[in-house]
Amino acid sequence: HIETNSTRIWRAYRTDKSFSEVPEVVCYPGRLNQALVILLLNACQAIRSTGTIELATEVADGNVLFQFAIPDGISPENLQRVFEPGYTTKGVGVGTGLGLSICYQVMQDHQGQIRIESEVGKGTTVTCLLPLKFTDNLSGDQRLYYLRIGLALHRLHHLAHEKLDGFVVAC
After folding, report:
1. What are the C-alpha distances in Å from 88 to residues 25, 41, 97, 121, 133?
2. Long-range contacts (CB closer than 8 Å, 24 or more residues apart) made by 48-54
């Protein structure tokens, strides 16, 4: 097992990937990587027993799109609140409710979007869109870099498989 925030998650899952060729995007890589890790961790924690996390990338309508999909759904009343800072459905000591609100802000800061489609009994898909043409609108010392989203997701996928021979028992 791997411990995260002193919490053990005893679930088995595996990851599948479907990575299309996507160009490099201009971004703040540290912040974007933070969002990717949060989304993967949330996917791990959201799987109730066992299941597959599907990772995908593609280019569509001038955006680089990346998706995380899991077999478990979110109830409509929870779905409408997932981006609220401090909102969590996790137990005491498991989450702070800040992860998805951070992801939302990271996507906004990159002039992108994050969308969640979910249905109980059918599954959840988180879709992030980053524009291929991003212009820096933030001030400060942050520098823009190019990042290959597919490569970043591939590294997350590889790390998950490297840890426990293709099955991760915790995230």
Report:
1. 31, 14, 4, 20, 34
2. 48/11, 48/72, 49/11, 50/11, 50/12, 50/13, 51/13, 52/13, 52/14, 52/15, 52/16, 53/13, 53/14, 53/15, 53/16, 54/15, 54/16, 54/17, 54/18
Closest C-alpha to 39, from 134, 125, 165, 109: 125
- In this predicted structure, what is the pLDDT of residue 150? 61
Q: State the average pLDDT for the chain.
A: 76
User: 14 with 167: CB under 8 angstroms?
Assistant: yes
Tens-place pLDDT, residues 79-111: 999 999 988 887 777 778 899 999 999 999 999
Are 88 and 98 in contact, with CB atoms under 8 Å apart? no
Quote the DSSP letter at residue 77.
Answer: H
Both tokens of residue 158?
């590889």
